[in-house]
Amino acid sequence: AVPGRTGMGLPVAVRDRVAAVHRGSALPERLRLYDGWAARYEQDVAALEYRAPHLAAASLAFAFPAPHTEARLLDVACGTGLVARELHRRGFRCLHGVDGSAGMLERARSTGLYQELRLCVLGRDPLPAPAEHYDAVTLVGALGEGQVPSTVLPELLRVTKPGGFLCLTTRSNPSNLRYKAELEAALGQLERSGAWQKLLAQEVEYWERAVTEEESTQGNGYISGVVYIYQKCPVPHLEEG
Q: What CDD domains does this protein's entry cite (predicted)?
């Protein structure tokens, strides 16, 4: 075995940094971890072969009516801007981002891909936007155990225009299954209440490399994940009469 590498073929340091942010530490500690991770984040997720930004942007672009250039998008938990890069490649130009980590936002700012970036801790702060402001809202990679609570869904809906799109992702690895079940219950409840309709829920087997043997869904060294696309229901017009 190569020293400093695990059976999963990942450097130990990468594995430890990833594990640390998923451990469900208290909020201040978690934000500190993300601030500290910002400089190495992109090379770490490249080592993980993390495909969520690509998969989410491709799904949203497919669902979204052209042209993309005029659409206003909010990238929630934007991190260093991985999702923005993928959206930009698909013709989206008006991108706003929010994240709870100042260190991550600094990196995102340096990409030059965002028109606006704001600090916002999801689940604690409301989104810094008026109601029905965005044509689409993305939340990629942060809906998970120890990260963003599924209770943020109504807030995402609030800032989305009627008829607008929401693109969400979560992981299907063993330690996230309880969270995923809670998330899917909340997604379903909002659908039954007529708040939005589901356009896509795509399970992806090779989401990213697993950091431990136990987490590998099929024993193939990878964990799986899901991309969800929802469309906010337009306000029904009342019949005259």
A: AdoMet_MTases
